[in-house]
Design a protein that fits this description.
The protein is an alpha/beta fold. The chain is 41% helix and 23% strand.
Length: 274
């Protein structure tokens, strides 16, 4: 079998528009794992926001992996071993907090299974907590509270406000932090040089596999690096145009079991010839 690993983004790829996994897709992914195939979830979500999907897919049972925070953390779901963990520099949090206060925008990070808010909870923070199915709470004196390592901070607010903040922060932290918009109302603040492709290379090295043995499927801008890196890069029909241009193959949409189509076209024919 040429391919040994299938890497899936979650939102807009693994899940349908209502954030669920279809029965057909679930069955196909369980069958793959039963045949010894690696199935990996790679998302910008926090770890706690990926684990419910990992449980549905029985990744723990099969000893598979998740990449959270866009690749800043790699976790073996069975053993809870952290394969990789890249965090923000300690001195960054107070600067981000002051920027949020001055610019009248929101700021959150993550502690365990919680979203923690540095500023009054707004609709965008509530959306982040809701899609990840984790609680949110506001903490007092955020810079003093965050004494633990964090993989990501997220700024929230009206798109036009965030645009100005994004420009300022990119200029101030050029070459030091990765700063980008994942939604018009979300500004992601990540350690420098974090993306899904770089983290997948670390996982492949740990497992003794090559990029040629990996299929990556996604729909968003943060999936481009892994789609270009993979032996087979797949864009969903619902993907952003830049993702489609980067892909080797465009499958059907997330609402039409596009992952199943990839398995049937590129994995099952190979397994049937062995």
């Amino acid at each position: 079998m040429k391919y040994q690993m299938l890497v899936l983004d979650i939102d807009g790829t693994l899940t349908t528009s209502d954030k669920t996994i279809s029965n057909k897709t679930l069955e196909a992914l369980l069958c793959l794992q039963q045949e010894g195939f690696y199935v990996v979830l790679a998302s910008g979500r926090p770890t706690a926001g990926i684990l419910p999907y990992a449980k549905l897919l029985r990744l723990e049972e099969f000893g598979n992996y998740i990449l959270s925070f866009n690749g800043a953390k790699i976790l073996n779901v069975r053993t809870n071993e952290v394969i990789y963990d890249k965090t923000l520099p300690e001195n960054v949090v107070p600067i981000l907090y002051q920027e949020a206060i001055d610019s009248h925008i929101g700021l959150i990070s993550y502690e365990g299974d919680d979203v923690i808010a540095a500023t009054p909870i707004d609709q965008y923070m509530e959306y982040e907590a809701r899609i990840n199915q984790i609680p949110i709470r506001e903490v007092k004196d955020f810079p003093s509270y965050v004494t633990f390592p964090v993989n990501k901070c997220l700024m929230t607010g009206e798109p036009e406000l965030l645009l100005a903040v994004e420009r300022r922060l990119k200029k101030r932290f050029h070459g030091f932090l990765s700063i980008y918009r994942s939604e018009p109302f979300f500004l992601e603040i990540m350690p420098q040089n974090i993306d899904k492709a770089k983290s997948l290379q670390r996982l492949l090295n740990a497992l003794g596999l090559t990029q040629e043995q990996m299929i990556c499927c996604g729909d968003g801008f943060n999936d481009v690096s892994m789609i270009e890196f993979a032996g087979l890069g797949v864009a969903m029909a619902n993907a952003q145009e830049i993702v489609k241009q980067s892909a080797d193959y465009i499958t059907s949409s997330n609402n039409e079991d596009g992952i199943v189509a990839v398995i049937e076209k590129f994995i099952k024919p190979a397994s049937n010839t062995n």
